Structures are given as C-alpha cells and as structure tokens.
Amino acid sequence: MKLLIVEDEPKTGQYLRQGLSEAGFAVELAQEGLSGEHLALTGDFDLLILDVMLPGRDGWQILANVRAAGLGVPVLFLTARDAVEDRVRGLEAGADDYLVKPFAFTELLARVRTLLRRGASTPQEHQLQLADLSLDLLRRRAERAGKRIELTAKEFALLELLLRRQGEVLPKSLIASQVWDMNFDSDTNVIEVAIRRLRAKVDEGFTAPLIHTVRGMGYVLEARA
Ligand code: CA
Fold first, then answer.
1. Which helix (H) or strand (E) holds 118?
2. Distance 31 CA to ligand 1 centre (A)
3. Rounded to whole angstroms, how far apart are CA atoms 198 and 156?
4. Angstrom distance (rounded) from CA 130 to CA 147
5. 3-state secondary structure string, 29-48?
6. Is the pTM of this model over 0.90?
7. Dihedral sign, CA of 108, 111, 113, 119?
C-alpha cells in the first residue's frame, strides 16, 4: 500500500512518514503543495494525506484537482483549524475523512487502515447502501428508489454516519460528537430537528421507513420487514 503525505511542517511530515513506514506502508512525503499535487496526480497512490494550509497549492485545491482528474483515491485531510466549516467544506469537496491537529498517531493509523480497507473491499468504494437508499460519497449524492434526494451538508454527514453504522442504535451523544463536533447537551434539540428533516426527505412517501427512533436510546437506520 502506497501513501502520499503532503505536509509542509517538517517535523510533522517526518514523524508521519516514519510512523507509517514502520507500520508497513510505502510512504512518500511532499513538503509543498505544487509537488504534492503533481505526485498525487501521477503517483498511483492508495491514499492521500493532505494538510490544508500548504504553500504553493493548498489542500482544498489539490483535492479538487485530484477529483477533477477522476481519481477516486481516498483522501484524509489534516486540519489545524477545528472549525465545523472546514470539515463540512472538506467533506463536500470530496475528502473521505479528516483529522484535527494535534492528533495521536494511533488515531491517524486507525483512520488510514479504515480508509484503505474501505477502498479495497468493494469495487464501489464510494457507495453506501441500505435497501433502496444509497449514498455516493464521491459525488455527494443521495438517492432513494432511484430518485435524487437533496441534502444539506449536515444532513449528508448525518445520513452517512447512520449508513456506516446501520443496524446499530446510535445515541444522541455519539451523533452530536461525530456530526456536530460538540458535546451533547440535552437542552438542545438540534439532533431531533435534523433527524426530523432527514426523515422527511428519506422516508416520507415510502411504505418502509428506514430511520427509526429507539426511545430513550437514540436512532437506528435499518430495513425492518
Ligand atoms: Ca501546513
């Protein structure tokens, strides 16, 4: 498995290269955006790890050009700015995952392995599916029964989480931390509201609802006979 790291901060880049090499990956490191982009487009990598703030080309531009070239290679973003807008923007731009600096190396390694496994396991690496509901992570499209569903970025992230963990009851606290990056506060109804809106888009008009409330516990996405 061949990985590309584009990171201009020398210590971080070398630390990542060393750690990932020791974990058994072939690793190339670019310390600036233009050469990083050139490598990303020509190097046939299994995974790209992109810093956001880079000289030459920033991470957003590299990602955009990689996707514009039709490359479906998984992309993990490293961002120093723990801002919701960054995450949303990254995911909308076609990043598969992101990690906020500073992070533990074990966390990075776990994300890398998950992304590579996802990439290798199925030919439709960017598709999540349940019954007639599908989510295309690369094209950022949701469909049910062949009909396009328009989702906001938050709704997309919420549906993606539900699909990835389908069949599992997800507590509101987990949804809050994964989708909103906030600690769950029982006074807020932001999750109920988002679920209600998502339901209206995903389930309304269908005889078999997929989003279910498990009272006192959370929400689960599953097809029930
Ligand atoms: Ca940087």
1. helix 105-121
2. 9
3. 9
4. 14
5. EECCHHHHHHHHHHCCCCEE
6. no
7. negative
Residue with tokens 């790209």: 48
- Summarize pLDDT for 134-179 with one digit per residue, the tens: 998 767 789 999 999 999 888 988 999 999 899 999 999 889 887 8
Nearest alpha carbon to residue 144 among 161, 123, 128: 128
- How would you classify the pairing of strands 75-79 and 127-130? unpaired
Q: How many residues does the chain have?
A: 225
Considering just the CA atoms, what is the radius of gyration of the chain in Å?
A: 18
3-state secondary structure of 108: helix
| Ligand 1 center–CA 9 separation, angstroms | 6
Cα 119 to averaged position of ligand 1 atoms, centre (Å): 26
Question: Model confidence over 78-128: pLDDT tens digits?
Answer: 987 666 666 667 777 788 888 888 889 999 999 998 898 876 544 455 788
3-state secondary structure of 27: strand
Ligand 1 centroid distance, CA of 11 (Å): 11
